[in-house]
Specification:
By secondary structure, this protein is mainly α. 76% of the residues lie in helices and 0% in strands. It has 14 helices and no strands. α2 runs parallel beside α13, α7 packs parallel to α12 and α10 crosses α11. It starts with a helix and ends in a 5-residue tail after the last helix. About 9% of the residues have low confidence.
Length: 316
């Protein structure tokens, strides 16, 4: 990774954070507790939300953004961060199912390396990178969960933030695609890749960034092949989305009386099925194609949101 590439990545990422925070406005205290679920989907609506979650969780276009915006365009409202986090459990099952052999190789090989004190093992380096790379998003996510929950639910998840961030991150992905050489394969991954992509993953806590989008973009800046960047992004994201789902479980169990068990179950199953299909498609697509499709989609998605806001179709 050249000095220019570092500057491009850090500069645009910093711009994304600055824009998001400036548009979010100041944090204000409220006497009311945060609303866990702002709208209760029925079974059919939950299946559609699960489909949206599954198709966008692993494709670099931001599942949280689509789960916020798509229901509003359909006139349903916002299902809330808790519901959308828990249906990610379906995506977790899908990624474990698809990458089971990789997980056994990396983490099984990492454990054997610890047993044999073979710390130069490639599997150990990759596993260590995944573990360390999970810390940034886990720590910051817990701080948001227990310290700034209402701010995140009401202000940070605004459509304005999602639109601007989607455009900025799309442009950042375009820079990675245009200026970086994508040569390194999965066997050439190391701990450094996991750590740097882990810090990029933490940006996904800003709605609209996309966890897979930020990690894949970082992977491309690091010189990884497109399919390798996507494959490692999925493995790196497994602990993060698992933690997100488990942390939200308590809230959703409390909200089940309002949401209902069947809609929640339908959403999780739908998310799992469509996540698997999206993973399989993306891996095969990136073996022969570039990421420009997602660059233009993200820019267009952000523009559509801004137009929707201007027309009054969406709430800020």
């Amino acid at each position: 990774m050249t000095r220019l590439q570092y500057r491009l990545m850090i500069g645009v990422a910093s711009l994304s954070v600055a824009i998001a925070m400036s548009l979010s406005g100041p944090l204000q205290a409220s006497d009311k507790g945060p609303t866990l679920v702002t709208w209760q989907p029925n079974v059919l609506e939950a299946i559609i939300l699960g489909m949206v979650q599954g198709l966008t969780e692993f494709i670099p276009i931001s599942s949280s953004a689509h789960l916020k915006v798509v229901p509003e365009f359909l006139g349903w409202g916002d299902p809330g961060a808790s519901f959308t986090a828990v249906i990610q459990l379906g995506s977790i099952v899908a990624v474990i199912w698809y990458f089971w052999a990789d997980l056994i190789q990396v983490f099984g090989g990492g454990l054997r390396a610890i047993r044999d004190r073979n710390y130069q093992s490639e599997d150990f380096k990759i596993a260590l990178g995944i573990v360390i790379g999970t810390f940034p998003i886990a720590i910051i996510g817990l701080v948001i969960k227990f310290g700034f929950r209402e701010f995140y639910e009401i202000t940070a998840r605004s459509s304005v933030v999602i639109a601007i961030v989607s455009i900025v991150m799309g442009l950042l992905l375009g820079l990675a695609e245009r200026f970086c050489r994508h040569k390194r394969n999965f066997e050439q991954l190391n701990t450094r890749d996991g750590i740097l992509m882990g810090f990029a993953q933490a940006l996904a806590l800003i709605p609209g960034v996309s966890r897979s989008g930020s990690t894949m973009t970082a992977g491309l800046f690091l010189g990884l092949e497109r399919a390798t960047a996507a494959r490692f992004s999925f493995l790196l994201g497994l602990p993060a989305i698992t933690l997100a789902g488990l942390v939200e479980m308590g809230d959703v169990i409390e909200a089940t009386q309002e949401v209902g068990l069947w809609p929640l179950t339908a959403g999780i199953l739908s998310a799992g099925i469509f996540s698997y299909l999206a993973i399989a498609w993306l891996i095969n697509y990136l073996k022969t194609q570039s990421t420009w499709l997602f660059v233009w989609y993200r820019v267009a998605f952000g523009i559509v949101i801004l137009v929707g806001l201007n027309m009054g179709v969406l709430q800020p």
